[in-house]
């Protein structure tokens, strides 16, 4: 029974975590440059819809992913551009963008609710096992690995490249960036657009892999949760991986406990991801270090 | 042509159009030209192409659109808030609707009741509400169908398809209507083979695609080889079941297209029967009935055509059970019946047909269902 639940949580974490991973990485990039983009929920939904529509029209799911990334890039670019104007509040703008993104997706997504688009193939990493459960759990989407790769590249980029350093300076201290003559608005525009492109790919995963269809309730707030996961991950791309996996595994707990016969308190188990997040936050937040790692220019911190 | 290319007036577009027509003089003329048509308003809580509850209503509305003398106006994704009052009001004032069908449970009280008091000449018929003569206005009413028999037939089909003798049911919330469906499904399966069990998973929400997919996956991992459900949009469940290579029974609407290999049959609403009745009465100038209920025998509910997953024996068994039901007076819940904790819930010698009020407060899962409602 324990191993069944463990297997379900393994499978769940691999299946459910990818959109969280992409959105949290994108948000991490944006916030490192000193901006918050709550609009990534809208980007996630729009990405899902654009990816599904493109895959249906072209017959190629990879084209769908590219289209989702471009849609994210444009929407993120809009956020970045508008927030470059003086006295524009990025939190308020993000909420507007979230509504605009989901609204646009619902409007143009109508004709694509019914048809079935070609989906992304999974990589059968469980081929060596003869247990169908394990095989299914280990059937992993290529996007998951792309997400892992993106996390490592970002981690390395922030630490070891000139561009990463510039993003961090702009995000940590506007004064320092001004003194160095760095293009603050341009850097933030880039970081926001690129971050939303990642979030768009996260949306493509939802519609093209798991659960693998386009409908209007698809995201149900996952984009917003991913934004919160960035705080949980302390603005560290590698931690974003752990946070997403943990969140995915905790999310699989509810259904799998019910299948093995633990039938009481399913509402409680459905709250598990949030309880786990809270617990880890409390455990890691020791006095004075609560917002360790937070970029200095974030409007919530100023 | 894609199913929804033609006309899918969403909230925003509708509001914009309404604003424009209100000021345009030409609109008045065209409204009057159509004044003889009976204008019928449909309000859906979700998307009308959700392969589920809302689609079942919208399919009936689409048939009405083709009837002469009837003009259908619809609005989808209307929340169960004051928004629905505004929708009803705009349908009545701008489109001239004289008959309104708010199809979601939460529209009834207070929104529809308030509108009914404000527009006493307009008829309101609500899907699922409990209309009471002494409590509610005469220009309101409610209709609903008994779909439990459909799930009973689903259960018989599932019993003929399963090899592991383990079935799965993905349910949203443990309310009586859902429990009746779960129990009917399990009893249908047990009528074929008493050793068959039905594992139930509650997702806690009416529409949660990722959770529903997870539930389907974890059922499949447990060796369950037929699933059915009671959620608002069964699309994701059907698709996930098909991908896992297990069988599925549909619910709400026909989902055969989503699971071309594994679809057995499905319990569907057949709302057109109800709507045609109401509209015929309205066109004839007769008073509309206030309280309408019906099941398979009344054609309020129908079964999907059999899918390739169901063998000849299964088809025959479902046909036979259906013929028995159509004779009338059939009861799925008959004593002695135990719940899954061992308590007697229907004493020996007693039986509850689908119309029995005792069923409306059902709060147990029958023997053979693995799960619990709390």
Can you walk me through this structure?
The complex is a heterodimer of chains A (302) and B (374). Chain A has 13 helices and two strands. Chain A is mainly α. Chain A has one domain: ABC transporter involved in vitamin B12 uptake, BtuC (Orthogonal Bundle). Chain A has a two-stranded antiparallel ribbon. Chain A starts with a helix and ends in an 18-residue tail after the last helix. The relative contact order of chain A is 0.22. The model of chain A has no long low-confidence stretch (mean pLDDT 90). Chain B is α/β, with parallel strands linked by helices. Helix content of chain B is 37%, strand content 19%. In chain B, the strands form five sheets. Chain B has a seven-stranded mixed sheet with strand order 13-11-10-9-7-8-18, with helices on both faces. Chain B has a four-stranded parallel sheet with strand order 2-1-3-4, with helices on both faces. At the A-B interface, helix 1, helix 4, helix 5, helix 11 and helix 12 of A face strand 8, helix 8 and helix 9 of B.
* Mean of residue pLDDT values of chain A: 90
Radius of gyration of chain B, CA atoms, in whole angstroms: 21 Å
Parts with pLDDT < 50 across at least 5 consecutive residues of chain B: 1-11, 21-35
What spatial form of chain B do the alpha-carbon principal axes imply?
Answer: globular
Counted up, domains of chain A total: 1
Class by SSE composition of chain B: alpha/beta
Structural class from helices and strands of chain A? mainly alpha
Record the SSE blueprint.
The complex is a heterodimer of chains A (302) and B (374).
Chain A: H1 2-32, H2 40-58, H3 61-84, H4 90-109, E1 123-124, H5 132-137, E2 139-140, H6 142-160, H7 162-172, H8 174-180, H9 184-208, H10 222-232, H11 237-259, H12 266-270, H13 272-284
Chain B: H1 11-23, H2 25-33, E1 38-43, H3 53-65, E2 70-75, H4 82-93, E3 99-102, H5 108-118, E4 123-124, E5 126-127, E6 142-145, H6 148-161, E7 166-171, H7 176-192, E8 197-202, H8 209-221, E9 226-230, H9 235-243, E10 247-252, E11 263-269, H10 272-284, E12 291-294, E13 301-303, H11 312-326, E14 333-334, E15 337-338, E16 344-346, E17 351-352, E18 369-370
Parallel strand pairs in B: 1-2, 1-3, 3-4, 5-6, 6-12, 7-8, 7-9, 8-18, 9-10, 10-11
Antiparallel strand pairs in B: 11-13, 14-17, 15-16
Helix pairs in contact in B: 3-10, 4-5, 6-7, 6-11, 8-9
